[in-house]
Amino acid sequence: MPTLSETLHNEAYVASRLQPRWRDEHCLILQDILGMVRPFAAEVQGSLFDYGSGGGPYRSLFRGITRYVRADITPGPNVDCRLLPNGLTEEPADHYDAILSTQVLEHVPDPAAYLRECWRILRPGGRLLLTTHGMFEEHGCPYDFHRWTAVGLENATQAAGFMIERSTKLTTGPRGSLQIWHYLIGGLRAPGQPFWKALFAVIRRLHFWTGVPVLNALAAAFAADGVVDARHPAAIYVGVGVVARKPAPGVSGPGPRSS
């Protein structure tokens, strides 16, 4: 069994984030996270802190960045900076122009502290791109703590002192339903019941070889449901995201709320 570090820094794992594969059960949500990251990467300049970077799969998208720091608790060949055991940093205040945080917040025991740390190390006027899970399967146990609604993530980000520029739902509607269907089939297991265990194993295998790529291809017809505004009426969505800004001097902002 590979360690977490070996998984996060595996070349195939990193590549799947930039080029999601049709046969990957996470293909749709990975495509839609890319739909959030690409425009952000084209806009930001200066220094960027990849907060909970893992293997740093999105590094190549940030061509306008002069300094890209990959930070994680787990060591690895692509980690430039180790986080403290509590997930916080030893970075100076007001130090970075941008922060990238993709699919990290659900693994943080204290999301409010993490978001306040994002606010602290960003320069005034600096920007944060944050994505995390909505209706996503449990994973990375026992270090999987939270799920979010779009408004819930907005509120948590604003409580840390940020001004919301954009708030989104990811992988919604029919596209989201197809993504969740993969997780439902993967959850068909019956330990201790030989007949059902064998039958479910066959169903899972057939779904992997035929259902996953076919349904992922079908979901291309619903590409418009990949990244939608947080006020969109979609009630099923696999992920959520915000782009937020730390208020610049002279700009009225809420400031972090005390815990």
Report the principal-axis shape. Answer: globular
Strand order of the largest sheet: 3-2-1-4-5-8-6-7
Structural class: alpha/beta
**Secondary-structure arrangement, i.e. CATH architecture:** 3-Layer(aba) Sandwich
What is the number of E strands? 8
Q: Calculate Rg over CA atoms.
A: 19 Å
Q: Approximately how much beta-strand content do the residues carry?
A: 15-25%
Structural domains: how many: 1
Please identify which CATH superfamily we are dealing with.
Vaccinia Virus protein VP39
Indicate the low-confidence ranges by residue numbers. Answer: none
The biggest beta sheet reads: 8 strands, mixed
Instruction: Write the CATH fold name.
Output: Rossmann fold
- Please state the average pLDDT score: 93
Distance between the termini: 39 Å
Output the helix-strand order.
Answer: HHHEEEEHEHEHHEE
- CATH C-level class is Alpha Beta
Relative helix content: 25-40%
What does this structure look like?
This protein has 259 residues and is of the alpha/beta class. It has a single domain, classed as Vaccinia Virus protein VP39 (Rossmann fold). 35% of the residues lie in helices and 22% in strands. It is built from 7 helices and 8 strands, in the order αααββββαβαβααββ. It has an 8-stranded mixed beta sheet. β4, α4 and β5 form a beta-alpha-beta unit. The radius of gyration is 19 Å and the shape is globular. The mean pLDDT is 93.
